[in-house]
Design brief:
The structure is a homodimer of 255-residue chains. Chain A is mainly α and 255 residues long. Chain A has 12 helices and 4 strands, in the order E-H-E-E-H-H-H-E-H-H-H-H-H-H-H-H. Chains A and B meet through strand 1, helix 1, helix 2 and helix 3 of A and strand 1, helix 1, helix 2 and helix 3 of B.
């Protein structure tokens, strides 16, 4: 037969679908692509375009970055924004601004322990759902997203950081993720660490973590143990199933 | 062979794809679905949630509907909004609000010839990219979208109204679409009308249009003529191609 898609000849062993199912799948693909186009144009419509303008029109609040938590001095120019946008994206900003707290009355929100660049990227994300990430920026934005409960940004940073996980950064990432309640990274890092337990105890970061936060180390061992028990149970049930399917004398006997 | 998708047997004549292409198509579908999920969550993030709250927090402008264009009295309560959102979605609002015109200074934008319900739906669309349409509402929103240059909403209304086109409403829709520069509806209505030319001249709406705006009627006849010429040319070239492929004596002779 000839494949309708790649036009190559194939034999019965390599058969995929019948013509009808191929046509249906093709239609489904077209429909999905149309849905993507619709959604993309919705995103383009809902994004705020004037973030690139200076000054930001109709701004009614500014955010100030402060690198040093003990000082209230700003470490860069302020980032103008709109109360309505901040309140719509973050329940923390909403509570802060709606309840006539200091920030609402003064029109200035001070954000501690953050650089001007990270703050600007954070505010920009609230307007556009877009950010240009590297590992450092993803960590900064994850911290802000957690603090101001911007779940969409937190998911985005977690996905990025999980994609950058490797054995070298796994322990540091695991510790960081625990501090900032980033469960997806915790799970992915644990999976990676428990696959390499033979190399774990020689790592410098491991020894540091035992000193600094032994409870986190305990969780690694607990995850490892639980993985071992699961694997053993699976092997066991696969073994039983195997014996059950092919009993030596034709009877269903479980060994 | 057995179809991997529907599990039915089929013969070589009904062969669709080989297994490899089936697997690839499956992966593509999964990827498209993941992209759709990502985009949907982006749309949910970018939409303004607090439109349902009363009062709208941090509103700095109100819109007033006025049914009667000769009077400036409002025909319903005002619709609160944010200058930043209006300016981001509509270049007309942006110019109006940024240039310290009356509307910007007073914080009130009067919208003539529109009902309160339509105005509320219009403003709601600017915040959410969503509207609940029937034919009447789609017409009202298309007019507002055209007036304030909100292309995304105009496309949405046009798509809806094209889906509702039929022979009964085709002439009215054609006239309406011309008045409001809705090219997609004009094209779709013309296609429908020129398919039913034998019934056209007996229609009451036709006779009215000849009286009121004969240029629009001329355009219908021009479209019909152009369609006829195209069809004739296609038939002609198909006829020639047919003769060329099967010449009676095996020679390539064009008749």
């Amino acid at each position: 037969m000839k494949c309708i898609s790649c036009q190559e000849d194939y034999d019965a062993r390599d058969a995929g679908t019948c013509k009808e199912c191929y046509m249906e799948a093709n239609e489904t693909e077209e429909e999905l692509k149309r849905e993507i186009d619709d959604l993309k144009s919705k995103v383009a419509f809902l994004k705020f375009s004037p973030r690139s303008l200076h000054p930001i029109p109709f701004s009614d609040v500014v955010l100030l970055a402060s690198d040093d938590p003990s000082s209230s001095s700003s470490s860069g120019p302020s980032v103008p924004a709109h109360k309505a946008v901040l309140a719509s994206r973050s329940p923390v900003f909403r509570a802060m601004l709606e309840n006539e707290m200091e920030e609402s009355l003064s029109g200035t929100i001070k954000i501690g322990e953050v650089s001007y660049d990270a703050l600007r990227a954070f505010v920009n994300y609230l307007y556009t759902a877009e950010a240009c990430l590297d590992e450092e920026m993803a960590c900064h934005l994850l911290i802000l997203a957690e603090k101001y409960q911007v779940q969409h940004l937190k998911d985005y940073c977690q996905m990025y950081l999980v994609s950058k996980l490797n054995w070298d950064n796994s322990i540091v990432s695991y510790t960081f993720a625990h501090q900032h309640n980033a469960k997806r990274i915790v799970d992915a890092a644990l999976a990676l660490i428990t696959e390499n337990m033979d190399k774990l105890t020689t790592r410098e970061e491991y020894m540091e973590l035992v000193q600094k936060d032994p409870r986190l180390v305990v969780q690694v061992y607990e995850a490892y143990l639980s993985k071992q028990i699961n694997t053993a149970a699976q092997k066991d049930s696969a073994g039983r199933a195997g014996l059950e399917v092919k009993p030596p004398n034709g009877d269903h006997v479980l060994y």
